[in-house]
Each structure stands twice: as C-alpha cells, then as structure tokens.
C-alpha cells in the first residue's frame, strides 16, 4: 500500500506526542495493522505503525490511527495529514482519526461489542483485539473529544463515561499502564481510574503482542493536581504579607493526602507484583545507570557541567548502602499525573518515563523514585508561577524566589511527613540517600526533557541545582 511518506513524516515531526524531537530521523516502514469494521460509506478507519529510524541506528514504532475520507472534511481540517492515493483504499483525504468523531465512534462500538476476552488464540495474529473487564456498561451514544493537553500519548474522552488513551510510541510486549491499571482495578484500589478495557494485536512480524490503547473510567469531577498547585502558589503570591500556611489556598493538607494515596498505591503494588531485594552490587549498577544518564545529559545540556561533581557524589553514596527493597512503582510521578476528585486523590499514567526502554520501565524500582518525582513537582510549581506570572507574580524577583522556596519547602515537608508516617518509616539513613539520588537523577532527566521540549523552562531544573549547590 502506498503512503505519502513526506506528509506522514511532517505530521509526526510536529506532533506534541513525538518523543524524537531534536533528533535526526527518517521514516522507515509504515505498516497497516488493522481496519475498524462497520465504517460508513466514504470513510475507512485504519491503524498504522510507523517506524521512526534515528541516525544513531535505533528506532521507535509510532501508532497512527488514520481516517481516509473520499471527500474533504471541513470540521477536521486542522487534522488533515494529506491527500493521496492509497493502494488498498484509493484516493483519499487522510486525517488523524483521533480528531474525528465518526472514526472514534467506530473504536467505541468495537469496545462495546467485545465481551470479556480470554488470552487470544494464536490464529488471531494480525487482528485487532478489543478486551473488556467486567463491571461497566459502555455508553455508546456519547461523542468523543480529543484532549488538547501536553501529552506523550493521545487521550479521547467519550462523553463523561470513559477515557481512551491511544499509545503513540508502542513497544512489543506488556504496556505497564495497562498491566498496572488492571491489577489495581481488580484489587479494588480507590486511587486509580478503573480500567474498562484495552486494545492489542499479535504482530505478524514478531509474533509478540503490541498494546495499542487503554479504555478507563472518566474521572468527571477531577481537578489536575498541577493546576491546583499553581492556583495555590498564585494565592500565596497575591497575599504579599502572608506566609504559605496563612493563605486560603494552602496546599499542605492536599500534599499530605496525596502522600497517603501514594503510600497506599505502593502497598497495593507491593502486594500484587514481585518485591525484590537489591544487594550492594545492584546498587552499584543503579549508581552507574544514574551516572550514565548524567553523562549523556551533559552532551545535551552543557550547563549541567558545574554540577557534575556534586551529582556524581550523590549517586556514588548509593554504593555505601547494604541492600534495599524494590517493587513495581509509577516511574514518572509528578503533579500532572495526579487528579483530585470528590472521592480523593487519583494517580494516572503508569507508563513510566516515556523516553526509557520498556524493559527498564518494567523493572522493579525503589518507591523513592516516585517520592522524588513528587518532590521535584513541588519545586517546579512555584518556579513556574514566578517565571510566567508577569507583573502579578508577587512583587520583585528576589521576593518571588523567597516565597517560591517557602511554598516548595512547606509542601515537600507535608508530603514527606505523611508518606513516611503512612509507611511507618523514617526519612534517614538509606531512605535519605535513596531520596537524594532519585532527586538528582530526576533533575538531570528534567534538564534534558526541558531542553528538548520546552527550552524556555530549562532554567527551572538548572535553578534548582544552583540553589542546592
Ligand atoms: N481517567 C481520567 N479521567 C479524567 N481525566 C484523566 C484521566 N486520566 C488522565 N486524565 C487527564 O489526562 C491527562 C493525560 O493523561 P496521561 O495518562 O498523563 O497521558 P500521557 O501518557 O499522554 O501523559 C492527565 O494529565 C489528566 O489530566
Ligand atoms: O506527563 P508525561 O509522562 O509526558 O511526563 C513528561 O512531561 C512532564 C511535563 O508535562 C515532565 O514533568 C516536568 O514538568 C512538570 C510541570 O509541567 C513538573 O510538575 C514535573 O515535576 C517535571 O518533572 C515529566 O518529567 C516528563 O516525563
């Protein structure tokens, strides 16, 4: 089948979800792996997997759900990828199907038609398989709305009934987001959106499963933890004479409740996934991995260089520890992965850091990785308000910086106190060394992430390093 490769490459290149920004890449094979049944006259809906081949010899696979229309569609003109003649489907106007309600209705109907499926028999290789968990009847009358946020994947809400996340970068094998949601849903966890189902296929080329999408409970009453934190900071900045604990929008109570939710999720994950002990040699490998990431980051962000020695020292202290426990964790936790609902805090997006290889994301890790992720977020929120708030951002730069540090310290302390209390642990000895190492690893990751995705925000992790030096 023919694809207009130039237009597909251009579409991928500009997409928010494309993780290869700033790297040199070519479009490899584009394979059609499925077609949605029951499309109306004049529309074909397909799923294609596009290979992104980098100059360094590595490659990634990206999912492109496409809508082939015989006629141009004015309402989704912004999602037009191009106009070309497809070998199988003929001449067509080709759109990103996630923007198209008619296409998304076919995805929802396919989920609704499929019952609870056992493990797929091998003769279903190459076929799309829609799986469902018991306990929820889908409302197929709802309309789809594509989320517009800054995301690594693409999420489509079906009314207020369900949310479908379509994974953009796909890897053969288990998708941790689906696997963890399934386990936590079946365990009755109150801190995640219940999993309703998922879509996968057995890839004919490699004979392995590729998980393409996940359908889950839509958290109707949710407010994003990141937005709530920003609102709290703005409240503080608006009250020049008050301290963080004195303003109406104080976040410390929420930070503590969020910590309890995280500790409960960690306990559930420890119960349902393997818990392992990492002895000294494995801790040496962890230190070496963090040092390796720092080495690679220095090439991308040379401004990290003045902090290199101290960062290496922090990682090196892991080698002094005897042994630590590791388990399944979230892996990429920050305030944007938390939602406050009327029924308490929920944690979303268990896929791990999008840039990491799958094997690494599935490996058990320390809970302190997640704790460090949240603590870094408490540092980010006031810095973002101070940096982007203009004249309303709370007076002179020096005063803003002081108050930003006050907000971050208060919420960090509330979060850490509640987390350790819930687990019956102290933040000293090995726990302190682990937290410091994961904080340093995260700040290095952030520097690379910001340099590649939001260069204007690179100053945030760099300022954090500056102030703790
Ligand atoms: N179940 C849900 N109900 C409502 N909103 C959700 C739900 N899950 C995620 N979200 C919102 O969608 C955004 C993106 O979801 P996320 O899982 O983080 O996607 P990505 O993997 O693309 O980063 C989140 O920041 C959150 O605001
Ligand atoms: O949500 P994703 O899985 O795509 O995570 C990536 O993007 C995040 C930004 O959206 C990034 O988080 C960083 O910025 C946040 C504010 O926008 C801040 O709260 C986090 O602490 C900071 O790390 C995340 O690191 C990245 O993996």
Automatic annotation (TrEMBL):
User: Which Gene3D superfamilies does the protein's record reference?
Assistant: 3.90.1200.10
What SUPFAM superfamilies does UniProt report for this protein, alphabetically? Protein kinase-like (PK-like)
Which InterPro entries did the record assign? Kinase-like_dom_sf (IPR011009), Mak_N_cap (IPR040999)
Catalytic EC class: transferase
Ranges for domain Maltokinase N-terminal cap come to 11-100
Print the keywords alphabetically: ATP-binding, Carbohydrate metabolism, Glycogen biosynthesis, Glycogen metabolism, Kinase, Nucleotide-binding, Transferase
The reactions it catalyses are: D-maltose + ATP = alpha-maltose 1-phosphate + ADP + H(+)
List the pathway annotation.
Answer: Glycan biosynthesis; glycogen biosynthesis
As recorded in UniProt, its EC number(s) are 2.7.1.175
Q: Assembly and partners?
A: Monomer.
Q: Which family does it belong to?
A: Belongs to the aminoglycoside phosphotransferase family.
Protein name according to UniProt: Maltokinase
Source organism (scientific name): Nocardioides pini
